[in-house]
Every structure is written in C-alpha cells, then in structure tokens.
Design brief:
The complex is a heterodimer of chains A (295) and B (259). Chain A is mostly helical and 295 residues long. Chain A contains eleven helices and no strands. Helix content of chain A is 80%, strand content 0%. In chain B, helix 3 packs parallel to helix 5. At the A-B interface, helix 1, helix 8 and helix 9 of A face helix 3, helix 5 and helix 6 of B.
Chain lengths: 295, 259
C-alpha cells in the first residue's frame, strides 16, 4: 500500500516536471527594448517633422508671398509665443478654455455613454435612433451655433450645448460598436461561469468593449475640441477671456504674431490630449495581447 | 417536455445525467434540421463518458442541452448537479490576469476577495500553473490556456464537467500531458465528465465508456465500455486496439452517408 502511494507521488512529480518543461519551451516572453531607446525611437521622427515644418514655413515667408505683418515667420511667432507663456492673462484664458473643454467633454461622456448603452441594449431604440446617432456624427458642429445662440444667447450654455452635441455621438457610437463586436464565445463563456444581467455587462461585455470605446472617446475629444474652438470664436462671453476670443481679438487688432502663436497653443493642446488617449489605447491593447509587445 | 435542474429524488443519487427520448431540431417546417433524434443516455455519478462521432452528429448540441444552454424539442433532460463547460478555445478574458480569470466564477458567486484569490491560487497549483497567476492569457501557450480554463471550470464548484473538444487545437505532445493531468484532476475530485471528441484514441485513453453517435440525425449508434486499467497510455496496445474497433464502427456509419 505504502509503495503504491509513493509510486503515485513519483508519477505525479514526473508529470509536473514534464508539464513545467513544456510550458517553459512554449511560453517565451519577448524582451522589450530599454525605455530611453524606445522614447528616442518615438521622438526623433516627430522632432524631424517639426523642424521640417518650421523650415517650410520660414521658406514661404522668405519668398515674400505676403507681407510679414500678415504672415510672420517662426522667427517672430516663437518669441511671441514665449511672451504669451509669461503672461498671466494668457493663463487665465487657457484655464477658462480648458475648464470648458473638461466640463463639456465630461457631459458628453455621460450623455454619450447612457445613449450608447441604451441603443446597444434595446432593439427598438436601435432601429429608431441608431442611424440618427451616426448621422449626428457627420453634422459639422458649427452648423449648430445659430440655433445654440438663439436658444441660449451668447452664454456658456450655448458653447456647452455645441461641444456636447459634437462629442456625444462619437462616444455613443464607440460604445455601441464595442458592445456589438463582443465575440460570441466570450458571451457564452461568461454565461457559463454564472454571469447574467448586470453582472454579464460589468464583467464581460463592457470590459470586452473597452478598446473600441476608447477609440470613440478619442474621436469624441477631437470633435469636442474643434467645437469648442468654433464656439469661442463665435460666442464671446463678456469678461470670460478664452483662447478662442483672444484669437478673434488678434485678428481685429492685426496682431498676426500672437495669432499664430495662439494657433500653435491650440494645436499643441489638441495633440497633447490626443496623445494621452493614444497611449491609453496602446497600453490597453498591449495588456490584452492585441498588439505585438515590442510596438 | 420537462427539464429538471436538480432532482436527486427522481433520479436516484447514482445518476448524474439522464437524457430520455431527446430530439432536437433547428429551424421550422421543411427546412428544419434534426440534430438529435431519440437519444437515450444515462451517465453515472463520477463516470467519465466520451461522445464520439463524425461531423453533424450533434455532439455539441448534446452538451448545450446538458449545460442548460438550450432546450430539447422533444424528450426529457435531467441533470443532477451543477455543470461547467469547456470549449475548444480556452475563451479566457484577455483583460484579466490568469488568477482573476480563475477567480471570476467565485466573484460572481459572491466569494470575498482574499478567499477567492486563495482558492484561485490553489486551483492553479492543481493544474500545474502555480506562480503564473499574475500573467495575462496572451502570454501563455495554448496548452497552458486550456489548463487555466480547466481551473476556471473547477472554480465553479460544479459536479459535472462538460468538455467540447477541449484539446482539439493542441499538438500531440501537449495533448498527451493534458490527458494525464485531466485524469489526475478527475480521479482526485470525483467529477462526472462528459467529453466530446472526434479523436477515437483520445476517447479510449480517457473514458470509462465511449458513446458512438451517428450523424444527421444524431442517434446513439453503439456504446463501448472501456475496462482498460488506469493509468493508461494513448499508445498502449489495449488503447490502440479498442480505438481501432471503434474507428471501424464509426467508418461503417460514415459510409452510410456516402451511399
């Protein structure tokens, strides 16, 4: 009896060793290059592109196509940009603009998610408003402004209204597409291990939909930012200095140096937030093995 | 038609699964496809049964009926105990770590965090994946993923394990080791296993009884009790001899469709 037990144990150990050996052979993790090297390999093409763009811009200015007070070169705009960065009123404008962006985007996030989830879940709602949501996405947000001004006057609400209408459809669509494309096998596995109703949404459907949803969030941000800039140019709220209304003011005062400097600021903020979403997307996909670990 | 989930009194405690006169048709009228017809099958508690057949024999349909994912058109399915189901793909959730995948059924059942982590780690140990709990599914090989899926199925505290060609996509060497492992888990837990495969040798290697199904419609064509002593090897003469006999019978069935 005792020898039989020992034989069983020996056999089990043997199996464990064989399995461990096979695992070690099959599951090899790729090595990733060092952080500094990765940063450099990402950064240098971007830096090169910026240098090229500045060069082309300066070259156009040098051809004398337009007077320098109308089209100044980087040699004038960059100092104007540094002056701006040292100015207190500029930062007030940036903070008001960013507060609008964050509030508007947060509202769009809530509204877009609720609508997206409702449309994804309820069949009747989908056939009723599903294509309308996509249709709204193609509507240029600036076309909403006349109505917004009529409804709310030259107020913060008018701007918010358009920002939300610009961003919410993309966010809703991202969520709908994500929920639609959950692999049926995942659903079956989820049901099999006892997930149903809200639990199925919380633990299976929504996590599975997340990468597509993040794509929608990213696109939503781009629309929100564009709508906000259009809004700040058109709807100038008294005693609320913003990037947009400052841009409008530079045109009126023929201050092209500062105008272009402000445009650089708008571009940089847009790119920066987009990069944050991009990073989130890549991290998410890498963790799920949806992209090669070395990218 | 009645479906009873847990009715130990009606069945007696020795029977885990009973299908009586079960037929299943998909679609309606003239275009209806009969997947199963008049199936009678009884599986005892703790028994390891393999369902073997060619394509279209309704193997997966039978499992879905037993798992309660589908209902029979005619007949009675009685299942005495909770079921867990494994597929050919591991179907792990890529956003969770290996440990959290195994712990999810426990979480859904309301088990606390510390307790479910402890149990998940124990189960991973059992399928020889101790220490791998922090990894992501995509970092594992196909065989390892199937073992995580097995651990996840065991986490459901089911008495009946249904397996739908779980090792069909694995290479022969990995499959052999997984046979050993499954046998070990089965003999140490007293699970009832219904294992669907088209690999006759695999069936002879693993099961107590092989049930051969015909195709379109699926009916029970024959049954082969497997009395070869355990532990077995897939390349032992006894296993290969039985597999040859079952294969001959299976081929005779397939030939009928060519006529």
């Amino acid at each position: 009896m005792a020898t039989e037990v020992r034989a069983d144990e020996a056999k089990e150990q043997e199996l464990a060793a064989e399995i461990a050996g096979l695992d070690a052979l099959e599951a090899h993790l790729g090595t990733r290059p060092g952080r500094a090297r990765m940063l450099w390999s990402v950064a240098w093409p971007k830096l090169a592109a910026i240098v090229l763009a500045l060069g082309a811009w300066q070259a156009i200015v040098w051809t004398g196509w337009r007077e320098e007070y109308r089209l100044p070169g980087p040699d004038r705009v960059l100092p104007a940009l540094f002056d701006l960065l040292g100015e207190g009123t500029f930062w007030t404008a940036v903070s008001i603009t960013m507060r609008r962006a964050v509030t508007g985007y947060a509202l769009a996030l809530v509204i877009g998610s609720v609508i997206g989830l409702a449309v994804a879940r309820v069949r009747l709602l989908r056939s009723a408003v599903g294509s309308l949501v996509t249709g709204l996405q193609t509507m240029p947000s600036i076309a909403w402004f006349p109505l917004a001004i009529l409804l709310f006057g030259l107020t913060e609400q008018a701007i918010m209204f358009v920002v939300v209408l610009g961003a919410a459809p993309s966010i809703a669509n991202g969520l709908i597409a994500g929920v639609d494309h959950v692999p049926p096998l995942m659903l079956r596995a989820g049901q099999m291990i006892g997930a149903k109703g809200i639990g199925l949404y919380r633990h299976v459907i929504l996590p599975a939909a997340l990468p597509t949803f993040v794509g929608g969030l990213k696109q939503g941000w781009a629309f929100a930012w564009r709508s906000l800039m259009a809004g700040e140019l058109l709807v100038i709220v008294a005693s609320r200095p913003s990037i947009g209304d400052r841009l409008q003011f530079t045109r009126e005062s023929l201050n092209a140096d500062e105008m272009l400097a402000l445009m650089v600021v708008i571009l940089v903020i847009g790119i920066f937030v987009d990069t944050v979403f991009g990073r989130a997307d890549v991290t998410l996909r890498r963790r799920r093995g949806l992209i090669d670990a070395s990218t | 038609m009645t479906i009873t989930d847990t009715a130990p009194t009606a069945l007696g405690t020795a029977t885990a699964i009973s299908l009586r006169g079960v037929s299943k048709a998909f679609g309606h009228g003239g275009s209806a496809v009969v997947a199963l017809e008049g199936i009678n099958l009884k599986v005892s508690r703790g028994e390891f049964v393999c369902l073997v057949g060619a394509s279209g024999c309704g193997k997966s349909t039978s499992l879905n009926l037993i798992a309660g994912l589908d209902r029979p058109t005619i007949g009675e399915v009685t299942v005495n105990g909770r079921t867990a189901l494994m597929f050919q793909e591991a179907a792990l959730f890529p956003w969770l770590t290996v440990r959290d995948n195994v712990a999810l059924p426990l979480r859904l059942a309301g088990v606390g965090r510390a307790e479910r982590h402890r149990r998940a780690d124990d189960l991973l140990e059992k399928v020889h994946l101790g220490g791998q709990g922090g990894r992501r599914p995509h970092e594992l090989s196909g065989g390892m993923r199937q073992r995580v899926a097995l651990a996840r199925a065991l986490a459901q505290d089911a008495e009946i394990l249904l397996m739908d060609e779980p090792f069909g996509a694995l290479d022969a060497m990995t499959r052999d080791l997984l046979h050993d492992e499954l046998e070990q888990v089965w003999s140490s837990t007293g699970l009832t296993v219904v294992f669907v495969t088209h690999n006759v040798r695999e069936a002879a290697r693993l099961s107590d009884r092989i049930v051969l199904l015909t195709s379109l419609p699926g009916k029970v064509a024959d049954e082969f009790p497997v009395t070869i002593a355990r532990p077995r090897r897939i390349d032992s003469p006894e296993v290969m001899g039985l597999a040859a006999a079952v294969t001959d019978r299976l081929r005779a069935e397939v030939r009928r469709h060519g006529d």
